[in-house]
Amino acid sequence: MKIVIVSLLLIIGLNSFAQSKDFSGEYTRTLGEEGKHVIEYKLVLNQDGTFVFHSYSKIKGGIPPEVNTYGKGKWSSKDNLITFLSNKNEDFDEKYTLNFNNSKARFITKNPRDKSDKIVRTKLQFLESEISWMQRIDIFKI
Asked: In this predicted model, what pLDDT tens digit does every residue of 12-22 receive, in sequence order?
C-alpha cells in the first residue's frame, strides 16, 4: 500500500512539474535601422525571481544622442501573467532608475496542442506599466 501511495504522489509531482512553464531567460527587441535610429530592449528573468532590464536608444540628432536606462527588481507569475515589483530601498540607485511597479506582461508561446506549421515566437507582451513607453511592447525570448 505504501508503494502505491508513493508511486501515485511521484506521478502527480512529475506531471505538475512537466506542465510548468519556464518564464526565466533572456528577452530582447530591437527597433529601427542600424546607423539611423536604434532602440534596444533587453530583459533577463532569473530563475530566483529577480530581473534586470536595459534599454538603449541611439537617436540620430537626438539630445543626448545615446541613452541607457536600467531597471531591476523581482518578478512573479500566475498562469501566463508576469508581475514586476521594484523595491525603492533595494532596487533603485544612480544606475537603476526605472520603476517597474505595477508592470504586468503576458507570456505568449505556441500552444503545445497546436500541431500546425504556424510559427509563434515566445515573447512577453507588456500590458500595463507606469513606464509609458513600455505599454504594449513585445520582447522576444532568445
From this structure: 544 444 334 68
The per-residue pLDDT for range 35-53, each reduced to its tens digit, is 789 999 999 999 999 999 9
Residues facing 19 on adjacent strands? none
Here the cell at position 36 is: 539611423
CB within 8 Å of 120: residues ≥ 6 apart: 108, 109, 110, 114
Does 8 map to a domain?
no
* Residue 50 and residue 84 in contact, taking contact as beta carbons nearer than 8 Å: no
| Total structural domains within the chain | 1
The neighbour count for residue 44, using CB atoms within 10 Å, is 15
Range of the domain at 116: 22-141
**What predicted TM-score, i.e. pTM, was given to this entire model?**
0.79
Residue 31's closest CA among 62, 57, 53, 52? Answer: 57
